[in-house]
Design brief:
Blueprint lengths: L2 H25 L7 H4 L4 H4 L1 H11 L8 H15 L52
Helix pairs in contact: 4-5
């Protein structure tokens, strides 16, 4: 067989396979997926903790100071690590401040606290260095 004839036979075989695959695909019936399984449900209907975590992620940086977000993250961590539910209530978590070095009088949570002394940070002594000879 020469090269032209071999190329023509190859092309005919390729076209025949393509037509057969197309005919098989067209006769196949579409299987409808289960409508209830693919139907979207709101996050709050699935899990209230997931809804709270979603809310905390949406408020951004303020979530680190929100007591409800801190509780939700602690509960999510407890579930993830498989730890048992604590029997006693944990200590109250104070929200973190944006500027921890600010005096207590400037803190809106502790407005009625006595004004703190406004001295600078204590200077640390420089560590002794070994003498180099």
């Amino acid at each position: 067989m020469d090269g032209k004839t071999l190329a023509r036979v190859g092309a005919i075989v390729f076209v025949a396979v393509a037509v057969t695959a197309t005919a098989i695909e067209m006769t196949r019936k579409d299987v409808a997926p289960d409508a209830l399984a693919t139907q979207g449900r709101p996050v709050s209907a699935q899990d209230p903790l997931a809804a709270e975590l979603l809310r905390c992620s949406e408020i951004g940086e303020a979530g680190a100071r929100d007591p409800a977000c801190l509780k939700a993250w602690a509960e999510n961590r407890r579930r993830f690590l498989g730890q048992p539910v604590p029997t006693s209530s944990p200590a109250r978590v104070e929200p973190t401040t944006l500027f921890p070095s600010a005096p207590a009088s400037a803190d809106p949570v502790h407005k009625d606290a006595a004004p703190a002394e406004l001295s600078g940070p204590a200077a640390q002594a420089e560590p002794a260095r070994p003498e180099v000879r």
